[in-house]
Amino acid sequence: MKLDPSQDQQSPTTPDHAKLHTRRWLLQRGVALGVSASSVITLLSACGGDGQEESTATAAEQTTVTSSPSVSSATETVADGTSTELSTEPTTAESSPTMAADNEGNPRHYGKEISVPEQPGGHLVIGATGDLLTLSPITVGHASSWYFLSWIYEPLVEPSPDTAEPSAVLAESWEASEDGLTWLFTLRENVTWQDGQPFTALDVKTTFDLFSSAEIGKSEWQEQVTSVETPDAMTVEFSTLVASADFPLYWGIYYVMPAHILQDIDPAEHAGHAVATGSDPAVIVGTGPFIFTEWVTGDLATVVANPNYWDGEPYLSQITRQVSERPLDLLKTGAVDYTGVSAAEINQLDATDLQLFDYLTSGWRFLMMNLDPEKTDIFQDVRVRQALFYAIDRQAIIDGVYFGYADPAVGYIPSTLWAYNPDGIELKYEYDPDLASQLFDDAGWTQGGEGSRENGGRSLAFTIHVPQENDDIVLLAQVIQEQWRLVGVEATIEVVSSNELDELLGQTRDFEALMWGFSMENVDLTWLLSCAAGEPGGANGGRYCNPEVDRLLTDATTEFDSEQRLELITEMNNLVLADLPIMTLVSQRVFAAATSRLHNAYPNAITPFFNIETWWLDA
User: pLDDT tens across 201-253, in order?
Assistant: First the structure.
């Protein structure tokens, strides 16, 4: 099978669902790409939709919104999750004498241990290094604002914190038609907006109709959804052009806004309206557990408890998101109660009574090779690509670059998502320099007297572009550079800005190899691995194109049975791993630290604030 995207190779017809991923990739790259200039290990942080990088210190804010797996039956309801990977020092939730168990009857707790304060109340201060960019759920495109807004607004569905499977929020259930082209969402009864107005299907329709407007229109929405109807006050019907098992969490994750507020806002003025700027808190009205009060740009943003929240009054009375260059310093003094920390900062927590939380990111650091022969012919032979991977000692990287706080990536699905299937992966590319040397030799790249590999008088040498904002990626590239040098490969590292790297990856494709990070919000990899994603604007910057992979991607996306879908995704993984256009290297662990007074916090890479209404502080 011809894998190289040469000009004489005809790409297969672009599958309709491949057109839906531009927005998803933009959100992924904005949320997933770590930004830090002060430490070797950077937490995944956020950048705005305009390409400007925004660093956030809250580990929970450094994750991406994650989509659902397949729908295995006509109606999906909330399923209990398993516990997240979490370490705390000390485990205060078990030692507090004021606790009472509250673990029955609420599936939105996903089986987590939830304690009840003897006296509700308390003001939680969360430290962050980057400011919000908007307060509008319609125009939000980066993590910091997205997660702040999750305290105020709510979506129809949310991904479970453990597997990213779809779970009910404002929708109680949803079902697809037999052909998968119509989705019917039944809304939760007895939900009110924070100003007392009832929540109805009209609110959902009005919110999503904005996606079809000329002023705010989202092209992916317009290419997929033909109409939003309201058969009755508590039912919403979406008609689509493309069958997709992931529809509930492609679009159901968007926060719903009230129709009685939106109807008075000209869509052309939405981005500058008080609903986005916060200049008039009265128009920022959600259904969530907290009510917006103020946003002082560059300083802080505050919410207070919603006493009429449909899922119970929050335990905290107030939350402030405090911007600071060094929020960890504020945490150690008690001025901040919760913030993200890097692996390099963990030793600063010694001899403190702070809690430490750690969990794997929902993504990986990767190395992409350019398979377009007009850009470079160095990677045309799959044996060269495979040899390069076998020559990388990822455990040494994990120990030396990430202080042990990372895992080797296995395939293209992160371990945080339901379709992660390491037992089904055939090629795991464990470190084997002897096999690497043999593959290089078989491909005609033999070592000369000085140790460098040559083929017809040409040295095996190329340039890797890396983002200057990501200290860990720069160091990662340097370690791999030395490891490759041991097998006769000469890699030159070129450090560029994230904006420049974004241009290379998504537009010009003028690179030989590049290293960056992606965060997976969904098990559908069309946005990264399809032939269509190799066109400008897609994330397939190396222009990998395999029609069989395209078929598997399409079949998996339109398969509604979860077991059959897992088989298709695993088969696709194995095929791509054999072709190896992209090396998935490591998945980082990220960290949050909190005062020992904080209870019920379960930060994770999927929905970090899923139970924010149950967080509480000792008096």
Answer: 999 999 999 988 888 877 778 888 999 999 999 999 999 998 999 999 889 99
Number of domains present in the structure of the chain? 1
- CA 266 to chain centroid, in Å, comes to 31
Whether residue 570 lies inside any domain: the answer is yes
The first and second tokens of residue 80, run together, are: 């209990």
**Which tokens hold the place of 541?**
């910057």
User: 312-344: per-residue pLDDT in tens?
Assistant: 999 999 999 999 999 999 999 999 999 999 887
- Residues 235 and 361: their CA atoms lie apart, in Å, by 35
**Cα–Cα distance between 617 and 125 in angstroms, integer?**
11
β strands within 51-131, DSSP E: 53-54, 75-76, 123-128
Q: What is the CATH number of the domain that holds 461?
A: 3.10.105.10
Calculate Rg over the CA atoms of the chain.
24
Does any domain span residue 55?
A: no
**CB neighbours (10 Å) of residue 318?**
17
Give bridge partners of residue 157 from the DSSP assignment.
168
pTM to 2 decimals? 0.79
Using alpha carbons only, what angle is made at residue 95 by residues 91 and 96, rounded to the nearest 5 degrees? 115
Strand boundaries in 361-435, DSSP class E: 363-369, 406-408
Indicate the residue type of 618.
Answer: D
Beta strands in 520-581 (DSSP E): none
Residue (of 239, 254, 230, 253) closest to 177 by Cα position: 239
Domain around 419: 20-25+361-590
Peptide bond into 5 cis (omega under 30): no
In a domain, 39, yes or no: no
In a domain, 146, yes or no: no
d(CA 333, CA 318): 20
Nearest to 616 by CA among 154, 102, 147, 108: 102
Question: What DSSP element (H or E) covers 256?
Answer: none
CA dist 378 → 23, 77, 245 (Å)? 32, 50, 38
> Are 45 and 56 in contact, with CB atoms under 8 Å apart?
yes
Strand order in the sheet with 458-459: 446-447, 453-455, 458-459
* Beta pairing partners, 198: 192
For residue 53, give both structure tokens: 């990088």
Q: Where are the alpha helices (DSSP H) in 496-561?
A: 498-503, 526-529, 547-557
Contact of 131 with 18, CB cutoff 8 Å: no
Q: In the block, which residue shows the tokens 């509250």?
A: 102
* HSE value, Cβ hemisphere, 13 Å, CA-based, for 50: 5
C-alpha span between 295 and 141 (Å, rounded): 18
